């Protein structure tokens, strides 16, 4: 039978297309283009040959690839990187710091022209440097959303900035109202700011406040560490949107989503959420 224990269809066509087995009962994952269960990868300048090899085998697991910080501005093979992602049906997104620096220097129009000419389709609007007012950020999102997919991030880069749940939720809501396609809850590459304390532990009260007020299919939680990914999947299911994942952690993350790793196996395969 091609069904899961709970009656949901097993994605046999997808697994067979990749030469994968389909005899276990695992949570069903939406095929691309997905609206939930997104995996957002942080690319810190992966050599093109390695990126091509990665996408050849794992592109079906990746929805967004973010070129971190301002590395796109100095990447000599940017157009090749963009072409690889486009061919693999992976949306490439520029890092938010590049946009923040461009805004501070009054060069947003130049950034947009350059990004469009290069073939970039998604931009991150962040305020990690805390240089934008709420009005300026909202105006940027509205303007950029006319031509780009916009991922808008809430949270500061510094670990000494107070984290107030109500303030975060209001900013995330305002970003969606301004036209952002997705809103990002800051965790950085380190996983020690914003959503997390300096030890990397999840600020559960903040996450729960976000979940109460926003549609989770529009929220992407930055979660670079396995412990953070496991916490979020265990709490919200396999269809949770997760970001700032390193390339080498994409396949391990998918095992967490499917209950094929001890950390989530019980929750997802023996009466747990199943990612519904």
Structure characterization notes:
The protein has helices spanning 12-17, 48-58, 78-87, 96-104, 108-118, 134-144, 165-178, 204-213, 226-236, 250-257, 262-269; strands spanning 39-43, 64-67, 91-94, 122-125, 149-154, 182-185, 219-222, 242-245. It has an 8-stranded parallel beta barrel with strand order 1-2-3-4-5-6-7-8, surrounded by 4 helices. The chain contains 11 helices and 8 strands. It is α/β, with parallel strands linked by helices and 276 residues long. The chain has one domain: Alpha-Beta Barrel (TIM Barrel). Helix 2 (48-58) packs parallel to helix 3 (78-87). It is globular. Strand 2 (64-67), helix 3 and strand 3 (91-94) form a beta-alpha-beta unit.
Highlighted features:
globular, alpha/beta, disordered N terminus, 8 strands, 8-stranded parallel β-barrel, 276 residues, TIM Barrel
Percentage of residues in strands: 5-15%
Q: Biggest sheet: strands side by side, in what order?
A: 1-2-3-4-5-6-7-8
How big is the Rg? 19 Å
Helical stretch count? 11
Which outline best applies? globular
Q: Helicity, in percent? A: 25-40%
In the CATH hierarchy, the architecture is Alpha-Beta Barrel
Low-pLDDT regions: 1-16, 271-276
CATH class: Alpha Beta
* DSSP E strands, number: 8
Q: Structurally, how many domains make up the residues?
A: 1
Order of H and E elements = HEHEHEHHEHEHEHEHEHH
**Ends: how far apart?**
20 Å
Largest sheet: 8 strands, parallel, barrel
Q: Mean pLDDT across all residues, rounded?
A: 91
Q: CATH superfamily, called what?
A: Aldolase class I
- Classification by helices and strands: alpha/beta
Might you state the CATH topology name? Answer: TIM Barrel
